[in-house]
Amino acid sequence: MASSIGSVSGKEGTQSTAPSLTSLAFKEVCRQLEAFVVGKRASASFVCGGLIPIDTKAVAGSTSSQPISVSPPVRICWYTDGENISRVLTLPLDSNADSKSASDNLHRLVVGCDPASFGRGQEDVIDPRYRKARKLEPRHFFTSFHPSDFGILQNVEQILLPNFNTLSQNSLPFRKLSAELYKLNVYSGPSGLFRQHVDTPRSQSQIGSLVVCLPSPFKGGNLIVQHEGKQVTFDWSHQSASAIQWAAFYSDCEHEIETVTEGERITLTYNLYVTEPVGGSIPPSLIVDPKSLSLHSFLKELVVEPGFMKEGGAFGFYCSHAYPHTSDEAPMLLPRALKGADLALYSVFKSLGIQINVVPVIMEDDYKGDEDEEDEDEEDDSKQSGKEQVASEKEQGASEKEQSASEKVRVGDKLHAYVATDMMTEEGKSALQALDWAWPGKCRPEVTWIGSPTHQKMALSHIAYGNEPSQSTVYSYAAMIAEIPPFLERQGLIDG
Ligand SMILES: O=C(O)CCC(=O)C(=O)O
Ligand SMILES: [Fe+2]
Predict the structure, then answer these.
(1) In a 3-state reduction of DSSP, which class is residue 426?
(2) CB of 447 within 8 A of CB of 453?
(3) What residue ranges line ligand 1, CB within 6 angstroms?
(4) Are residues 257 and 301 in the same domain?
(5) Of 244, 218, 214, nearest in space to 78 by CA
(6) Residue of 137, 194, 245, 252 with the most ligand 1 atoms within 8 Å of its CB, for mutation
(7) Residues 245, 390: one domain?
(8) pLDDT at 222 exceeding the cut of 80
């Protein structure tokens, strides 16, 4: 492939009306690069799961430091405010015990829970059409179950938080997961459900959620997890009586629980946070070598080719996952909290010795229309139309339109925390004027953009004074910019 490239760079051949051979070759390289990125996204994991059989003869409190592969029955001890007593329930229900008293105890747990709410806008609401479930707060119960006893966290780490060996760059420190018990939830037949939603992150370092389904028979209640058009379904009903089943997914994945038609679906939910390992010098047990990824060979062939971006250039990749990239902690969290395909892409460039940075970007075109806005409602409409535009561009993939639109993408100098400013913009001037003051960054026409932007976060709010002052908000997307050095400089970069 490399020998057929000729001289390829993003800027050549743009003057003549007929596309030159070099610009065609460059487009073909971009098309192939996008195919690799899209392929990586399609194959990258965003969810994982497993099953732990229950051994009813086993007892809690294993002395081994190794993860165990079967679980003793799970005990839940909860406290009810009203009755001022605590109770214990063992799952699965003991088939030898008086079945009435065992199921009475299960019933007591269910009625001892409060109706579960969910976040709608800034509010916490209870709406059984959207979520019909009950919940116990962790301060009201104890459980004998802990996910690390069964190696669940190590398992999730390997799939959702792999450690990549990025050679001497070492800018991606080793990462670990920590889990925090969040709730016990009960979804009861015949109508328990939770419609499609995204979990509200409890802190900026939250990277995912873990759901552990305790052994109690039920029917229905499939958990469906989605990311970028892909979906994975967990049907836990068949083994619900005799096993603990679990699933973990990134926090930006939409998910839902289909209607539970019979029985009690009892889950423990945990928030998963990215942390640095204690005693940072101990390497994790599994380290992925980015050289094993096909994208690595593709890029390596490109960068050793003298005709490819001979004078240097840059590729911009929109992140495929959402990140708190406008939070105060963003510079500390990124790139450490990169997920799935974004992490793989970052690691491949790093392993080639090519500088790549996570930066915020703003689509200037989305804010050019502000001059006509009169009030906040209209501003919301314009935001919406901005989104639609993004969606329609997405359908075209890395279209020529996007590539020629590099001049309209404002690239932040670094990760910026969200800023609210009351600086005055002149009446009739666009939000871009506020950006010039408060959001250091610039358009970089030399960047060739691959893919389409997906998740936006509030970057800047400002007040536009006029006859009537109005508040206007600018949103940014997380992206990664790989700086390709000129051929002569990059010759020494690539090892072996
Ligand atoms: O119980 C489950 O499968 C998932 C629960 C859930 O999505 C939540 O509590 O946010
Ligand atoms: Fe959820």
Answers:
(1) coil
(2) no
(3) 185, 194, 199, 211, 223, 255, 257, 267, 269
(4) no
(5) 214
(6) 194
(7) no
(8) yes
